[in-house]
């Protein structure tokens, strides 16, 4: 877990936090951060120092709504070739998953990226290929760059991309939990930089630290937040300076802006969050599966879709519960028989707890 040098640094950080005698609640929005916390026992270590760190809506598979899942299921049912990442294929819909539909003979294909889906379209001109474009600012540039290269006319995307900063605003404004500080995602911040988070500190006086994914990164991030709180300060600090820069990846941001525009969108467990989603600009709407297959998707219009009975994924994504507070966790809901997406995705808090908790 730690080198000798890092072990000494970790001990120093923990000692300083304990001396501060705090009782604080932090939130992060990254599945990889959650994996590091639980895998290395940092969640327990920090809890013993008076700091609880919970996961917010930082799993892209988890925040994808039941409606978006049903859209892909319906397109598969209508004879389209639907493609997506492996995790999405296993997320349960109202009655089925994409995997179960594949087993029934529908053309559902797992791909490693959007380029694989484009290749399927290029090599099979008789197929209507739809890629489920899921993810935050980290994956949106890849989707955008592919669309800028003019993929074949039998290719389209079901856009499910979302952006992190406005979701954080929603959590703070909802006021369901008291958050003393935010640990911001390293991958997303590599793209957007540090500036898009500044309004959270300025408008809501929330201390923030962007961290990397090593155990020492997260410990240092926690300590940096404690120091801000002790000084009654609120700013965006960058612990992950070896990768994240103030202005982020300028070219990636330009590509996103050229292809997408902001839109109001629901997140699983949340109401509509203003300007937290991405939709294709008019110049690229020929690749918009929702418009291209509007007639096929008509039967889902105005349909109300509920979360699975007993599933607490919505509360988990808002930081209101832990996996162990869900009555389904480890019983009716396991990675082999998932009820909700938080148990499906390797970035989901239920899946992570299940993998690393003592059985």
Task: Describe this protein's structure.
This protein is of the alpha/beta class and 359 residues long. The protein has two domains: 132 residues, Rossmann fold, CATH 3.40.50; 155 residues, HypD, alpha/beta domain 2 (Rossmann fold), CATH 3.40.50. The protein contains 18 helices and eleven strands. The strands form three sheets. It has a five-stranded parallel beta sheet. It has a four-stranded parallel beta sheet with strand order 4-3-5-6. β8, α13 and β9 form a beta-alpha-beta unit. The longest helix is centred in the first third of the chain and has 17 residues. It is globular. The two termini are 21 Å apart. The model has no long low-confidence stretch (mean pLDDT 96).
Oligomer: single chain
The tally of domains stands at 2
Fraction of residues in helices? 40-55%
**Alpha-beta classification:** alpha/beta
Q: What is the N-to-C succession of helices and strands? A: HEHHEHHEHHEHEHEHEHHEHEHEEHHHH
- What are the low-pLDDT stretches, counting only 5+ consecutive residues below 50? none
The rough form would be described as globular
Instruction: Please describe the biggest sheet, giving its number of strands, its sense, and whether it closes into a barrel.
Output: 5 strands, parallel
CATH superfamily of the largest domain: HypD, alpha/beta domain 2
Provide the β-strand percentage band.
15-25%
Regarding CATH, which class of the largest domain?
Alpha Beta
What CATH architecture label of the largest domain applies?
Answer: 3-Layer(aba) Sandwich
How far the N terminus sits from the C terminus, by CA atoms, comes to 21 Å
Strand order, sheet with most strands: 2-1-7-8-9
Our count of helices gives: 18
User: How many β-strands, per DSSP?
Assistant: 11
Compute the gyration radius: what is it?
A: 21 Å
Report mean pLDDT, rounded to a whole number: 96
CATH topology description of the largest domain: Rossmann fold
């Amino acid at each position: 877990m730690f080198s000798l040098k890092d072990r000494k640094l970790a001990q120093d950080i923990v000692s300083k936090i304990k001396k501060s005698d705090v009782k604080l609640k932090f939130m992060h929005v990254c599945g990889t951060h959650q994996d590091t916390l639980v895998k290395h026992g940092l969640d327990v270590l920090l809890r013993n120092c008076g700091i609880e760190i919970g996961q917010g809506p930082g799993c892209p598979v988890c925040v994808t709504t039941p409606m978006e899942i049903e859209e892909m299921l319906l397109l598969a049912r209508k004879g389209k070739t639907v493609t997506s990442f492996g995790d999405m294929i296993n997320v349960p819909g109202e009655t089925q998953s994409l995997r179960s539909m594949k087993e029934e003979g529908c053309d559902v294909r797992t791909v490693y990226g959007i380029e694989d889906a484009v290749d399927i379209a290029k090599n099979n001109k008789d197929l209507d290929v739809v890629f489920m474009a899921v993810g935050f600012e980290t994956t949106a540039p890849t989707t955008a760059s592919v669309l800028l290269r003019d993929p074949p006319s039998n290719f389209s995307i079901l856009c499910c991309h979302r952006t992190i900063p406005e979701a954080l605003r929603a959590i703070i404004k909802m006021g369901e939990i008291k958050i003393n500080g935010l640990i911001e995602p390293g991958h997303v911040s590599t793209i957007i930089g540090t500036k898009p988070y500044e309004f959270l500190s300025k408008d809501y006086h929330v201390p923030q630290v962007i961290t990397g994914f090593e155990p020492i990164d997260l410990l240092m991030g926690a300590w940096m937040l404690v120091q801000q709180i002790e000084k009654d300060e609120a700013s965006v600090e960058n612990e992950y300076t070896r990768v994240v820069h103030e202005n982020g990846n300028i070219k990636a941001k330009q590509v996103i802006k050229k292809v997408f525009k902001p839109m109001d969108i629901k997140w699983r467990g949340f109401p509509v969050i203003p300007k937290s989603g991405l939709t294709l600009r008019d110049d690229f709407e020929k690749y918009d599966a929702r418009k291209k297959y509007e007639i096929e998707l008509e039967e889902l219009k105005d349909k109300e879709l509920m979360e699975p009975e007993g599933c607490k994924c919505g509360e988990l994504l808002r930081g209101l519960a832990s996996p162990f507070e869900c009555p389904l966790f480890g019983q009716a809901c396991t990675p082999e028989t998932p009820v909700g997406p938080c148990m499906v995705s390797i970035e989901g808090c239920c899946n992570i707890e299940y993998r690393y908790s003592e059985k």
